[in-house]
Give the backbone structure.
Amino acid sequence: MSKQILIDPVTRIEGHSKITIELDDQGEVREAQFHVTQFRGFEKFCEGRPFSEMPSLTARTCGICPVSHLLASAKACDRLLAVEIPPTAAKLRRLMNLAQIVQSHALSFFHLSSPDLLFGMDGDPAERNIMGVVQAYPALAKDGIALRKFGQEIIAMLGGKRIHPAWAVPGGVSEPLQEEKREKMLAMIPEAFAIIDRTLSWYKSVLEKFQDEIGVFGNFPSMFMALVTPHDVDQHEALLEHYDGKLRFVDAAGQIVLDQVDPERYRDYIGESVETYSYLKSPYFKAAGYPNGIYRVGPLARLNIIDRCGTPRADQEWVEFRRLQPGVISSSFHQHYARLVEILYGIERIEQILSDPDILDRHIRAFAQPNKFEGIGVAEAPRGTLIHHYRIDKNGLIDWVNMIIATGHNNLAMNRSVQQVAQHYVRGTRLQEGMLNRVEAVIRCYDPCLSCSTHAIGRMPLHIQLVGPGGEILDEVKRN
Amino acid sequence: MRRVLIIGYGNPLRADDGVGWQAARRLAELRQDEFVETLALHQLTPELAEPISRADLVIFIDASHDGSPGSWKCERLVAGRTAGNSLAHHFTPASLLTYAQAIFQASPFALVISVAGASFAYREQLTPSVEKALPQVIQHVREQIARLHSKPEQTYA
């Protein structure tokens, strides 16, 4: 006689979801599934729209990472025009993407995950939330706000507003960077460095406390995928890359499976499957089949597949990070650490780009009519690789859209991670806060954006049900 | 001069959900005052605690499901632990006040204006009842600002 534990919905992630944990006759976890229960259909309702609207339209996919969609979409439109955008436009887009990564990682680390890290996984839920952090650790909360503001201000100065800037356009960007704004951005950098320095120092000092979680929070062998800098494969010098570049896949041992793959050939290597229990599709590595072709994307994947970051201070931190484990870092708990290293890298690269003598150049857009009927744009969003793929008709109207969102790439890994945590912590037919929080916390490691990957509207009180084989509720917990 | 921060928020692509956003946009067009900052936002985010901490008066304008369409109310807001579990996109005005208080030691006087919506469907226009209420809301905000500035040496409350 099997039983089912239902956690509906999960808190402190974007969107709406629930977790089902199925128990076997012995009360052991048989299977766990992460369900995304809302549907958006962005790919469908974009059909018939002029392609030039796509960057602005698809940026509405998300309120947290609109810049990522804006840039991937603009890149896909560049391919429809078949133009090389001006070098300064590419640098400005890269600058905005890095600012986006800094602010999004800051939100994930300081506002969503720090309660678990500060109060512990077994902390009182009344305290273990961001309001508890604000009350007990105001300096850390203030750092979180300042770092997010750093990224948001750069986005706003470039794009005119913090959320949903419509600045990246097919062929480049709509406005050049002004000297005054560059100086303002540069003036914010010392504080950003100071914040990430003390945050990294603090985080490394508490990491030891979480050995249990590190051991079972999505700690399994899998492939990893991300963009890396274009390079000569014989030199094996792949650097961290967020805006452009080529795809690299590595296996669970850290061996390169595919390198320097043109992102426009993503369909040769990535399949897309669907399950009846979720609106979130499940991409997989084609050569390994479904569902064995599980791979992970995001900050952990990016730091796992590179040969070094490419900036002095991030390179030092990366070396230390990779010492956590021989080969690749397999635990998804280390996504938190990886985010901090990426924030450091982002600040360094932002400073480098702003110091580039060409960054104020006013040639920032290439103009053309559509020259191709198909365009693919790929960029690294905070949560991982983001793919926009469009086809247009002879009038430039969208015929077909495919979007693979970072959270989607991680779908199989999130399911595997929930199952691993549940097998370790779930015992019997009663629900306990510490166990439930760990199940949720492993999902938060991926910082999933369900509103991106489907669409979610609404608030997320926690509702957990333990359901017997006959549908009877054996146990129930509600948190508002 | 005392500083005022107006935050109108909502989704202008979801009919009446955008009433706060529309109100902020129209107020920004009406007032060119360096002491009044007006933000039209899709959502409340944690870094807003910082500009909130610099204001003497903060006015949030938002849509509501409660009440007959087009009706609105203005209530005093106090800091509170109301972020609940919806901590990702959905910061509340009260939780932002708590942020400002705990992190920046600031306790501005705060009001929240809630406008009851009729439709939250996919459209850019407000419904007639909410559109009709919008000038009243804007006038009320202007009166609150005038009231603050008419008593510069006193506490707002």
In short: The beta strands of chain B are 4-9, 36-41, 57-64, 72-77, 109-116.
